[in-house]
Every structure is written in C-alpha cells, then in structure tokens.
Amino acid sequence: MKLEFHGHDERYTVEQSLLNLFPGELPVYEPIRPMEETNWAVVSWREDEKRGRACVELCWQGKSVAYSRGVPLEGRTPYEREGRRRYAIGAAFFLAYQSLTGNTPPWGMLTGVRPDKLVTEALTAGKTPGAARELLEKIYYVTPRRAALALETGTAAFKAAKSLGPRDIAVYIGVPFCPTRCAYCSFVSQSVEKSFSLVDPYVDALAAEIEAGGRMARETGLRVRAMYMGGGTPTTLTAPQLDRVLAAFETAFGPALDACGEITVEAGRPDTITAEKLAVLKAHGVHRISVNPQTMEENVLRAIGRRHSPGDIEAAMGLAANCGFPHVNMDLIAGLPEDTAEGFRRSLDRCLEFGTNNVTVHTLALKKGSRILLEGLTIPGPEAVGEMLDHAEPALRAAGYAPYYLYRQKYMSGSFENIGWTRPGGECLYNIYIMSELCSILSFGAGGSTKMVDPSRRLIQRRFNPKYPKEYTERPEKARSNQADFAAFYAR
C-alpha cells in the first residue's frame, strides 16, 4: 500500500497498523496518484498548543474514506505529546479501516505483543477493573470478549507484581536443539541430527556461563524467583547433560535460590522424553514440565514434520504422571497445516482427559523463516482458526481452567492471540513475569535475550547473546559483557 505523510513521520505506528489491518500489505513510500491507484493512505497531523488532530484518507480496492481523530495536548510534556500523537494517528487509521470495511479485529487498534499490559498499568494506577476494561473497549476498540480476557490476565499480572521485590529476577536457560525442525518454526534451533557434534561443547559453554552468572547474582544481592529452561527442546540433551546444566545452576546461584518457588523445564517433544531424563529433573527439584503435542492428529503431526505419534504423547504423559511433577503443561496450536476445526477439537478434548493443570493454546504465527511459508503449505483460514478458539475457551472454562497470561505475535492467523490456561494454583510465574515485563530476566545460552527491568522507572534495557550455538561457544566474552551490564544496572 502506498503511504504519504504530512506533518509527521510516524512510520512505525502506521506500518504496524497496516500490518495489523491489511495482512500481506507492505508499505511503499512513493507519490500517490489517487485517480489511478486503488490501495493508498494519506496520513496527516496538525497541532497547536492545545490540541492535535490526525486525519487519514484511506483507499482500499478502489473504495475510499476519510476519518480524523483529535486529542488534547495542553499541559503535556513533550514525551506525553508524542504518545498522544501516535495514539491519534493509530486510532484515525483504525477508524478509517473500520468505516471502509465494516470489520473490527479482535484486538481493535492494538498492535503490540502485550495487550493486557494496559490493564496491569491501569490497576497499578488505582483504577477499578471496570475502568481498565472500559479503557480497552472505548479507547482502543478491543472487542468485549478480548477485553474480558485481557482483564483476567492483566489482573493475574497485577497480583504477581505485588510479591516481587526490587532485586527479584527470573532466569532463562536456553537449549537451542531439537530432534527435527517443525514446519511452523523460525527460532534459532539446530536439528540434533545435523549438529550432534555441537552439543557437548555447547553444554560446556552453557555451564561456564551459568557459573559466572550465578556468582554475579550472588555478589549483586539478587534473588531468583523463577527459572525456565526452554529451547529448542531441552530434553534433546542426554540425562547426564541435563544433570550437569541443572547442577551448575543450583551450585552457581546457591543462596540466591532461597526464594525460588518455581523451576520449569520445557520437555516439549514427546519423542525426547525418557524415564531417565524425568528422574534427573525430579531429582533437581523441577516443579513443572511441558509436554507439547501441538496436535493429537496423526496427519497434522506428519504435516508439521514431527516424528512422534499420538501414542508417544500418551506414553510421555504416563511417564510424567509416574514421576509426580506438581505441574504439567501441554501446548496446542490452532491453525496448523492440514488441521480442521474438528481435528483441533479432538486434540483439545484429548489433552483435557490427561488431567494436566496447564494448557497453552497458541494461534499459528506465520513466521518468515518457517517451512510453512517457504514451501507454501496449506493452512486453515482465519474463520476456521476462529472456530477452533471459539471451542477452546468454553471447553477450558467448563473443565475448571482460567486464562492467566496472554501475548500476541506478528503474522498471527486471524490476528488472534496465545493464551495460557490454568487450574487454580497452577500458574507458571515465569510466563507472567516475562510477558508482563514485571522483573528482569537473566538469560543464558545461544540466542539468549537478557532483559533488565526497573518498573519504578519504567525502564527496560536488553542485551543479546550470540545467536548460533557455534558462535556462542566461540565468543564467551559477549556473555561476560552482558553479565557486567546486568550487574551495573543493579548498582544504580
């Protein structure tokens, strides 16, 4: 779509609105010829000391409309005036789209990853739950159903934040290896079949980074409240390798773990789960594991490149039950290749039969590096995905689950969301901490994204480890530099 700006250069705001409302459309910055072209937008901004006004002329498939949105500016700081401008431009673009198409996306004009963060911030500021929900519906045009979901998950984050101190952090340990690469995946992960020789050096480097990071955390006076080992698939490692990583974590952090009430390991792929590995996790006090089928449909498993069967999932859940983990999570994805609304319904209903106290329902995100896009695999349309999610919510609520965290991604089918559902007492605090940005996350491993968070100053800084396992093992100085920055952040 051709875009033309007057009186501003809010490219990010308009481009995110374009991505949200017109999936597949790319911004083109060239002169617009309104009488000759069918898809374009002219976005203008005018302001004085008291008010600002955004005007959007939008043309789509030859039909055009104009819409404007004004906002008060008097008495605002430059930062606040900038925020008002961005809001007005985004709202005018959304309202023009709505007027032109008659459509209202589930999350209205919101384009960010954390739509419920607005609820958490409103509750923290002393607003009532009703006022927080009204903010979503009246100001950001979120549909009532999604606003209700956001109120539940935003309230869970508000409650979790109350228990965190200024030096409380969470830890992430990344293992970027999988048995095979799934069709929907674009994460930096290596197939073990192709990179077996990298695993041992990677574990060595990871243990060394954890040892240094734990020492830094103790010296800085930090407390670990939750640890999450993800990937990739951590249980791609052998039992002795898992034992080494977890032992390094326990030894390195020592007293900093006294307040840690949650250790999670994403077992993920059922074909990597063995009784020996689960025994190692149990011996190290792991509270929660994930067994992630993504689907219970045989043909869908084949389509996404998974080698396990529904029977393997059942066997893995049996092993987990025998070990007696307090919490087990199962992941499903709505919108996978070859899936149908009926197939997704069967998958969810089967997962509920296992009695697990956590179920995460993802919506397929069409990631640029995935085989789905590279090979043009057939996927269900937005209406079918909506039907899958329409079944999931009442089925989960009827079984005693409630939503406790949610987030969105770019290129999601139908512009929906990912939701974590739990029975009472089964919340994964790490998921709340990271999605609501409640505390710092100290990350270890290739592709690790360390996030330094100071809620009192609304300050967030990020540091990144090298992306790929080989680069990570060869550049330990990058991890050391990141840890020094982490310590400096808490020395202020």
In terms of topology, how is this protein built?
Layout: E1 2-6, H1 11-21, E2 40-47, E3 51-60, E4 63-72, H2 78-101, H3 117-124, H4 129-139, H5 144-162, E5 168-175, E6 177-178, E7 190-191, H6 192-220, E8 223-231, H7 239-253, E9 263-268, H8 275-283, E10 288-291, H9 298-303, H10 310-323, E11 327-334, H11 341-353, E12 358-363, H12 371-374, H13 382-398, E13 402-407, E14 418-422, H14 429-436, E15 440-444, E16 449-454, E17 459-464, H15 469-474, H16 476-490
Parallel strand pairs: 1-2, 5-8, 5-15, 6-7, 8-9, 9-10, 10-11, 11-12
Antiparallel strand pairs: 2-3, 3-4, 12-14, 13-14, 16-17
Helix pairs in contact: 1-2, 3-4, 3-5, 4-5, 5-14, 6-7, 6-16, 7-8, 11-13
CATH H-level superfamily of the largest domain: Aldolase class I
Structural class by secondary-structure content: alpha/beta
CATH fold-level assignment of the largest domain: TIM Barrel
* Biggest beta sheet attributes: 9 strands, mixed
Task: Write down the CATH class of the largest domain.
Answer: Alpha Beta
The count of helical stretches stands at 16
| Shape field | globular
Distance between the termini: 46 Å
Contiguous low-pLDDT stretches (5 residues minimum) are none
- The side-by-side strand order for the widest beta sheet comes to 13-14-12-11-10-9-8-5-15
CATH architecture of the largest domain: Alpha-Beta Barrel
Share of helical residues = 40-55%
CA-atom Rg in angstroms: 24 Å
The whole-number mean of residue pLDDT values reads 93
DSSP strand (E) fraction? Answer: 15-25%
What's the number of extended β-strand segments? Answer: 17
Subunit organisation of the chains: single chain
Number of domains: 2
